[in-house]
Amino acid sequence: MRSDVIDAPLTEDIVLPSRPEGKRRARTSRQYRVRSRTARVVLYVLLTIATIPFVYPVLWMVFSSFKPASEIFAVPPSIFPENWTTAAWPLVFTENPFLLQYANSLYIAVVVTVLTIIVAALAGYAFARITFPLAGPMFLLLLSGMMLPTEVTVIPIFQWANGLGLIDTHWPLILLPVFGSGGIVATFIFRQFFLSLPVELEEAARIDGLGRVGIFCRIALPLAGPAIATVAILQFLRSFNMYYEALIFLKTPAMFTVGLGLTRYEDVYGEPMWSTQLAATTLTVIPVLVVFLFAQRQFVESLSRTGIK
User: Fold this and answer.
1) How many structural domains comprise the chain?
2) 31 and 121 part of one domain
3) How far apart are CA 18 and CA 20, in angstroms?
4) 71-96 pLDDT, tens per residue?
5) Which of 109, 150, 163, 211 registers the highest number of CB atoms within 10 A of its CB?
6) Cα 56 from Cα 62, distance rounded (Å)
7) What pTM was computed for the model?
């Protein structure tokens, strides 16, 4: 009897205070979940509103290609056509050698991207991992090349290309992005990435008997996937959308890139064929979206890594 009297209060002391505490924790957990969901909803709403200035012009371009010319400049503007028509789309291929120009832009962009990755990866690895005299000043001199606008150098480059017989060929459109400002930016991205790699990787590779070339080909370059994706996106977009260089160096419509070809859709009076231009522009967006969608994750990761060192 005595032990029963002693045990009863002990049980009450242990069990009873735990119930309000458990309720309090459950209530706090529910409040946290509600706040988290609310914050997430607010964030999504704000992000949706922020995308409107970027998405609306693209949607307007796509839907305006199905409008008659009288509706394109209607006030107030409307995103959806009142009278749907596909008359502009066949003219994309009949009024201009669009497919040939499209192919020109694609192959130039692919060649420029591949060459830039090769050249910039080698240069970036050299600046990041190889010690040689005047490496710092040479890298600063290389970066200073980005400060020169294209308009300043276009006349001497045109004279150089004309002297070599490269006018109305695609060679200037391939060489300039690789060894110009685009190649410099790519070299900087690769250098920053290779600086972030642990030195122990190279030391272990040397112990296994790899030389400098083997370390670059078997270790450094396979790990540089994010940097490669970033350079690929930047160079592909720049080369595929190239207009100014194509305007300077190309003369024949069959050699035009798609950016220059878009300006050649004109009627018999020399007026722009707006619906046809918008339809052709819609087709040019497709490769850009495909490349970015496949490599956007590596692109963001590489940009975050470039600030490590």
Assistant:
1) 2
2) no
3) 6
4) 888 888 788 888 888 888 998 998 88
5) 109
6) 10
7) 0.77
